[in-house]
Design goal:
By secondary structure, the protein is an alpha+beta fold. 42% of the residues lie in helices and 23% in strands. The protein has helices at 37-40, 68-96, 101-126, and strands at 7-17, 20-25, 46-49, 61-66, 133-138. The longest helix has 29 residues, at 68-96.
């Protein structure tokens, strides 16, 4: 039995531009971590493709989904560079400065882990998101 993992979001259609739809996510009270600061500043918009050619109008509540492959690629680009940063820092210290010991190697690895994570975060924040979401259905009664 194969389990599929898809990221599903709900939101209100803000703008329709041909096959591209701009959606304001329906966060509700569940998002407490940032106190909705990102969404209030306009950064929480979702760009989705209307590949099913559903007739959409501004103000409708819709469901959008991201595919397994796009979720995998996003996870890989988020987690792989920090892990590689740690491994490379640890190996670098063990190969070129073996006298410093395990603690220094681990510390250098952790430093490069956080450096790589910060670099990935900055790159992702400055680069616009690709259309990974697809409109799947209109949610009635909203």
């Amino acid at each position: 039995m194969r389990t599929t993992f898809q990221m599903t979001e709900k939101g209100i259609v803000k703008e329709v531009q041909g096959r591209t739809v701009i959606i304001v996510p329906d966060i509700g009270d569940a998002c407490f971590g940032c106190m909705n600061a990102e969404c209030k500043s306009g950064g929480g918009l979702i760009s989705a493709e209307n590949s099913l050619a559903i007739q959409l109008t501004v103000g409708q509540m819709v469901e959008v989904r991201a595919s397994e492959s796009s979720i995998f690629v996003q996870a890989l680009t988020a987690f792989l560079p920090p892990a590689l940063g740690f491994v490379s820092g640890y190996i670098f210290m063990r190969l070129f400065f073996p006298a410093f010991g395990e603690g220094a190697a681990a510390f250098t690895g952790v430093l490069l882990l956080f450096s790589a994570a910060i670099i990935v975060c900055r790159i992702k924040k400055g680069k616009p998101q690709r259309q990974t979401f697809t409109v799947t259905r209109i949610i009635p009664g909203k």
